[in-house]
Amino acid sequence: MIMRPLGLAVMALAFGVAPLAAQEQVKLGVLNDQSSLYSDLTGSGSVTAARFAVEDFGGEVLGKPIEIVTADHQNKPDVGSTIARRWIDQEGVTAIVDVPASSVAFAVQEVTRDAGVPFLISGAASSGLTGEACSPTTVHWTYDTYALAAGAARGVVQDGGKKWFFITQDNQFGHALEADISRFVKEAGGDVVGSVRHPLQTTDFSAYLLQAQAAGPDVVALANAGSDFTNALKQAAEFQLTQEGIRMVGTSVTINDIHSLGPKTAQGVQFAAPFYWDMTDETRAFSERFAEVEGKMPNHIHAGVYGVVKHYLEAVEKAGTTDGLKVVEAMKSMPINDFFTHDGSIRPDGRVLREFYLMSVKTPEQSTGDWDLVNVLSTIAPENAALPLSESKCPLVANKS
């Protein structure tokens, strides 16, 4: 956890004492995994990204200082919802940010819905957060399982990957990924030849990989994330699946995962993501600034935290209040423009529309540096990366199109 200017606020949270000025401040709660399998993907990096956004905005809004507090939800829905309630009811938090792990995000969304507090999601991916469970105060900012599925499935099937086998994390996130990708595989003319589910934080994937081999697929899709993804891919390399002509597809991959694995192990893996640090002068400038603090390049979750915090503060200024419903209404009325997103928008269901990219991990020979890790193969248009509103089950969507 980064303490710097946040230290006193975090200490106050640790002892259950709210700062006396809390009700006079705009206070953002960055809630994520700081000690487990998603900590490298979110963790202190998300806090740093939020701090940058506050600094770049000017440090205050509506004449009030902006404060950031943070906590570890431990990937437990009950822990996450308890922290969210305490933050809102006792400590004056005006918006909750990040929240990886879809199971935790669904629990926190119920708290923020009841309290009328903005829930600014960057880390969680389940498309159901803007589906039947959608909330008028939720903005699903960075990515979701539908976008990951659209990017990973269409291009791979068209390139000859017809028969798919899933190794799936046994939670809401993994189930949503498998369901969304299976739909795209079948629509593109492919077939799902089998699947197997594994517990969170699995270390031995040998039995699952043997089942995948036995099914004779063209593609093994890893519908998991964090250390589960990296452990599965390492063992797939040991089993020499790619040498048998099987294509490995990551369905929720960050640059941190690829850096951890290295090009030798991860080369050729295809995945979809909305951001890569080395795309433009603007993404490189943000990423180098981030790396000076965190010692690594940012992923799309970190970039998303920066973007959603900045957009939220701009909306508070426009609305002239921190009232949650009014602020989210202002967020939806404003175009999104930053180093990450150009001319993006927020739909009535809370889903952000932006481009996604199909990427492939470079070979060791192609990589020219420690973080020079992927090639961008194609661009996925915003309208093709989001579930059509005509198919939405969100009750907020009155006029579907």
UniProtKB/TrEMBL annotation:
<keyword id="KW-0813">Transport</keyword>
<keyword id="KW-0029">Amino-acid transport</keyword>
<feature type="domain" description="Leucine-binding protein">
    <location>
        <begin position="25"/>
        <end position="362"/>
    </location>
</feature>
<protein>
    <submittedName>
        <fullName>ABC transporter permease</fullName>
    </submittedName>
</protein>
<dbReference type="Pfam" id="PF13458">
    <property type="entry name" value="Peripla_BP_6"/>
</dbReference>
<comment type="similarity">
    <text>Belongs to the leucine-binding protein family.</text>
</comment>
<dbReference type="InterPro" id="IPR028081">
    <property type="entry name" value="Leu-bd"/>
</dbReference>
<dbReference type="InterPro" id="IPR028082">
    <property type="entry name" value="Peripla_BP_I"/>
</dbReference>
<feature type="signal peptide">
    <location>
        <begin position="1"/>
        <end position="22"/>
    </location>
</feature>
<dbReference type="GO" id="GO:0006865">
    <property type="term" value="P:amino acid transport"/>
</dbReference>
<keyword id="KW-0732">Signal</keyword>
<dbReference type="InterPro" id="IPR051010">
    <property type="entry name" value="BCAA_transport"/>
</dbReference>
